[in-house]
Design goal:
Helix content is 77%, strand content 0%. It has 4 helices and no strands. It starts with 22 loop residues before the first helix and ends in a 5-residue tail after the last helix.
Length: 163
């Protein structure tokens, strides 16, 4: 159990390094990693909301370190899975994952920009600030849509028997 109010227990997904992994099994590993990334995003959002409300810098900094570590670990494992998929001849799945990584990186950047802007303007947002926040939210929604489209395609590839 963690010592700060933003705690959330996470299960670390172990990447299967056996030689005979199928495309479907690798994509199922990817989906588990993507779930971890979603939990990290939810923790990030909650942490940033709490920080804006309560200004608890120590808890915020500790949680941000953990979230950053989680994003790093998950991203490295996903990059390796994409590489493994490509080396196994599953180039389309590898390409989908590479594109998803780019979108996730952009989404994370936009999320950080949005929270920085929200922190800066607090209750004193003028029309220009409001317009910037709307643009950031719109861009974020656009990337989430792209991410979901790729995830749908990968889900079908991971479960071909259900297609």
């Amino acid at each position: 159990m963690r010592d700060h109010p933003f705690e959330e227990e996470e299960e670390v997904v172990e990447v299967d390094l056996t030689v005979n992994r199928t495309e479907a099994s690798m994509l199922k590993e990817f989906m588990k990693l993507q779930e971890q990334r979603c939990v990290a995003y939810n923790t990030l959002e909650r942490c940033m909301r709490e920080f804006r409300a309560k200004k608890q810098l120590c808890a915020f900094q500790g949680t941000m370190r953990e979230i950053t570590d989680t994003f790093q670990t998950v991203s490295l494992a996903i990059i390796q899975l994409a590489k493994d998929l490509g080396e196994a001849g599953h180039n389309q799945s590898a390409m989908f994952i590479d594109q998803l990584q780019d979108y996730e990186q952009a989404k994370l950047r936009l999320t950080a920009e949005m929270h920085i802007k929200l922190q800066a303007v607090s209750n004193n947002a003028n029309e220009e600030d409001q317009a910037e926040l709307r643009r950031l939210r719109s861009d974020q929604v656009r990337f989430i849509g792209r991410i979901n489209d790729i995830l749908d395609a990968l889900r079908y590839r991971a479960h071909p028997e259900e297609a």
